[in-house]
Amino acid sequence: MAPALETRGLVKRFGGLVATDDVTFKLEQGARHALIGPNGAGKTTFINLLTGVLTPTSGQILLEGEDITRLRPELRVQRGLARTFQINQLFPAMTPLETLGLAVSERMGGGRDWWRVIGSKREIVDEIVEIAQRFRLTDVLDERTSNLAYGKQRLLEIAVAFACRPRVLLLDEPAAGVPEAERHELLATVAALPRDVSVLLIEHDMDLVFSFADRISVLVNGALFTEGTVEEVSSDPRVRAVYLGESVDE
Amino acid sequence: MQSTTAETVRTGLSRRGRWGLGEIAFWLVAAATLFFLPERHLILNEIAIIGLFALSLDLILGYAGIVSLGHAAFFGLGAYVAGILAKNGITDPLAGLVVAAIASAILGFVTSFLVLRGSDLTKLMVTLGVALVLGELANQMSWLTGGADGLQGISMGPILGLFEFDIFGTVAYAYSLVVTFVLFVLARRIVVSPFGLSLRSIRDNPLRARAVGIPVNRRLVAVYTLAAAYAGVAGGLLAQTTQFVSLDVLAFHRSADVMLVLVIGGVGYLYGGLIGAVVFKVLQDVLSAWTPQYWQFWIGLILVLLVLAGRERLTDKARFAVKRFFGRFKAQRTDAMPTTSAREI
Amino acid sequence: MLTILFDGIAYGMLLFVLACGLAVTLGLMNFVNLAHGAFAMAGGYVTAVLMNRFGVPFLLTLPLAFAVPAIIGLVLERTLYKQLYARSHLDQVLFSIGLVFMAVAAVDYTMGSQQQMIQIPTWLQGRVEILGIQVGLYRSFIIAVCGVLVVALQFVLTRTRFGSRLRAAVDDPRVARGLGINVSVIFATTFAVGSGLAGLGGALGAEILGLDPTFPLKFMIYFLIVVTVGGTTSITGPFLGSLLLGIADVAGKYYVPSLGAFVIYTLMIVVLVLRPQGLFARAR
């Protein structure tokens, strides 16, 4: 079986700067894979290449064995590659209900439907209910998103991506900025994501990485520095030097 | 637990599609003016047309977030198309409207690709430029448009072969009102559909809209084209009911006025354009009776004050008051259905 | 042919003086000020009133044609405009259109709707022949005055402390503030000078462009073209844009009068679609 997501010799240059340096990377089916690296290592550029916000200078990106290197961002989502954002990117004037309804109906090809009212399809309703329960949003479904507590917004951020029913989910620092009290809920929700979704987690927080991931890749200066199991990477002295050492003073 | 959540979801999603009491009242009052204010039908006709025009601007400004200073391009094109058709023997009003709508939609579709890129300022200039080019064309092609003298000698046939236009403007008003109503119902349906929801999401956060798989550009092209068609119909109505078209339909102040109308009524909810049209015309009437030449000064002042005071806050407040007023009736009537605020339509 | 070029340059330089304030407002404050033409009109009317009612000589009115709009600009900036910097472009557009409507109606009310006549001094009238080219004296005067202004502006912007602070504020207001630059004073000064220059342009151009209450609406589009086509990142962009527009407009009206302004509007759209940042702006 082809890996869920794969890059081959991926390079991105901005002028003279090499932001992504020949990255060849595999995300296996059903994996819980973490991508770590010090600030400025090129994690965000890498994500933007995967999702199609940026076009690579050279190299290939494959989603379940199919080349998506030149595909437009929205088409990648439709093929099953969804992401969350490090800084919340929600629809502040809409309710979580509408947000989820949008994502679900869009995925079912309903976005071109300009005639029916959105709630009239049973399968849409059922799916929203399921997602709302999974992400503990049932009690705030009808509130304006901008009025939600930050922790709930963070959950919604993941829920929207999940509502695209991805094969591969890219989580960009899902716990960033979440207060300690709400952290546990968030981590439990992330841990309970169904196993048929392959997850690539971009994270700073070592607790989250160690409790969640079964494989870790380390990105330094745009290049893949090392990759291995949690034990291998956490005991690698070089990783400690470049990454763990640096994260202490943050 | 499961079933109550499902219920919340179902009502929450379909609520916006339901007609509120205030809305029904609004249209009943509009219909009543057909019978009770016969001497005002000429101005009411204008209100209906401007209302439809402002509604079309709302589709692109309020629902898709494109700032346009040249919306008169589509209005004017519709007016000239309808006028020229009638002058050349195709006098059936509805056929004229359909052709006007198609012509404007084509122009809208083509020019929509120009406004997808660039900053607000670029969009503003491009839309303005399109209207200016069209105005210049109409001016130069006087063999077709009558140039600066205007397009004269339009005579319309009866609507559906049944109703002749009369000199009091009653039939004209009824015609414009019905067309506006039908297109309003259609627009209302569209904005609560999944398509409409995706437009709101694009206005709210285009980055995330893309990230849930919405083809943002295609949606914007679609709504821009639709809005152009609506504006074309409004222009066509003006040409048919006043039986005259001048270069004025393409002028800058048309685009500015319609924006003003929409802003007075409130951007981003369909009644904004209609209410704005009523307020604008009444204001214009009162002010120009008071200071015939200089009413523009007061319009300008209102605009400045409106912006300084925070127009969104003001319209929200007004709407909240209206909602509370109608809410009182509703509270006695229903227990389960949460009411929709007008803002959300 | 060369006369047309000459007239076009004079016209273009005039446009630059009229529009450069707008370039700075847009570039510096990211503020869409459609009311810029109203300041130009104010300058024009200051000159007209002083000359026709009080018999002040043309040249002496010019400093006032600069000062009065500059003061109006300063007052408006401090009281009204500054509240709108952080608002949406739509709000700025609406606000400034409102101001234009008010200015047009107010001038119409106080001064009447007719064209204002400005009698330029006799020593500036007529044409002379230089190297076989028919050259209007008044247009040469305009070129000279505007040329001096352009050089002075360029000097102020690139060589003085004020200029470097202004450029810092253009690049990043937040960083500029962090460096201890009083950005709001710079904004206000720049706005006032821009309004004053527009007023001066309005006074100088009254003879060529005409002067009546609809001036701000009629020329708004020209100012906007200069700024959007030229780009707002430097002063040279709008300058080249003005010259281009001036020459194209004069030549267009002379050679293909039937096309009118059609060519210019179409060109503007093409430029904006191909280069949304402006023709002479460096791509960021």
Backbone structural class of chain A = alpha/beta
Low-pLDDT segments of chain A: none
Shape of chain C: globular
Subunit arrangement of the protein:
heterotrimer
Radius of gyration of chain C: 19 Å
The class by helix and strand makeup of chain C works out as mainly alpha
Please give the share of residues in helix of chain C.
over 70%
Query: And the CATH topology of the largest domain in chain A?
Result: Rossmann fold
Question: How many discrete structural domains of chain A?
Answer: 2
Outline the low-pLDDT stretches of chain C: none
Number of domains of chain C: 1
Explain this structure:
The complex is a heterotrimer of chains A (250), B (345) and C (284). Chain A is 36% helix and 24% strand. By secondary structure, chain A is of the alpha/beta class. Chain A has two domains: 1-80 and 166-250, Rossmann fold (3-Layer(aba) Sandwich); 91-165, no CATH class. In chain A, strands 6-7-8-3-9-10 form a six-stranded mixed sheet, with helices on both faces. In chain A, helix 6 links the parallel strand 7 (168-172) and strand 8 (198-202). In chain A, helix 3 packs across helix 4 (122-134) and helix 3 packs parallel to helix 5. Chain B is mostly helical. Chain B has one domain (15-278): Orthogonal Bundle (ABC transporter involved in vitamin B12 uptake, BtuC), CATH 1.10.3470. Chain B has helices at 2-14, 21-36, 41-61, 72-87, 93-112, 120-140, 142-145, 170-191, 194-204, 206-211, 216-242, 252-265, 271-290, 295-308, 311-333. Chain B is globular, with a radius of gyration of 21 Å. Chain B starts with a helix and ends in a 12-residue tail after the last helix. Mean pLDDT of chain B is 84; it is low at 327-345. Chain C has 284 residues and is mostly helical. Chain C has one domain (2-215). Chain C contains eleven helices and two strands, in the order ααααββααααααα. Chain C has helices at residues 2-29, 36-54, 58-79, 89-111, 137-159, 161-171, 173-178, 183-209, 215-230, 236-255, 262-274, and strands spanning 127-130, 133-136. A two-stranded antiparallel ribbon of chain C has the order 1-2. In chain C, strand 1 (127-130) and strand 2 form a beta hairpin. The radius of gyration of chain C is 19 Å and the shape is globular. The N and C termini of chain C lie far apart (38 Å). The chains are: A alpha/beta (250), B mainly alpha (345), C mainly alpha (284). Chains in contact: A-B, B-C. Chains A and B meet through helix 2, helix 3, helix 4 and helix 5 of A and helix 1, helix 9 and helix 10 of B.
